[in-house]
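re the bet — no i am not wrong, look at it urself. input seq straight from the record:
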Amino acid sequence: MVDNFAVADLPDEVIGFKYPLPNLARSLKQRNTKIVAFGSSSTAGTRQVVPFPAYLELMLRNEFGTEMTSEFGKRMINVINRGVGGEEASTELPRMQSDVIDEAPALVIWQVGTNAVFRNTVPEFAFEKVFAAIAEGLDRLSKLPTDVILMDSQYATAVVTPEKKPLSEAMVKRISELAEVAGVDVFRRYALMERWHIAMRELVDPADDLALHLSDWATRNVTEALFSQIKRMVKAADAT
């Protein structure tokens, strides 16, 4: 857990989800549950840092996968990693059908925003193209029996310089607005990590020359925060 910043103590405006996860809750009562993590390098993984989908899979299996169902036996929960380093929503959209929709997952976690800030001079990553791609992707996913979580930008050295920080804040704000229109949850990674930065935690992998990719500590604790909200909203869905 986070030193002096226990995930359970963080206020809802930092990490709280707004919407239940009924499709995931329903799937967790069956034999197999499939989740797709879709995004760029912090989804795919870098160097020796284990990426968040692997940690999340372990946490979900420990929480929900140990129970036996009378009809199916022991549950299996798989978090499929569909991250590709260096991509952004605008370049991920063409592979959404094959990498996400064709998998028929109960939950999609779509990590967006960081590369558009980091590589903001690349035409393909122009903010309006990224925003349009997120909106179109959310529209496609809305037609499926799947829950969606948008994971916003990370708070990392390379994207919070005096030049980049206003871009990061604009990106995070727009991601939240797009999620609100689509009626899906946002995992506010940027705000969460900013809290930890204030507490002087090491968020960036010290071996990363780009000062962009997360440390193992940050990755594990980001995942713990994400897992805590998924668990809470599954229980909320079960209660309705």
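see?? DSSP finds eleven helices and seven strands in the chain. told u. also The radius of gyration is 17 Å. so pay up
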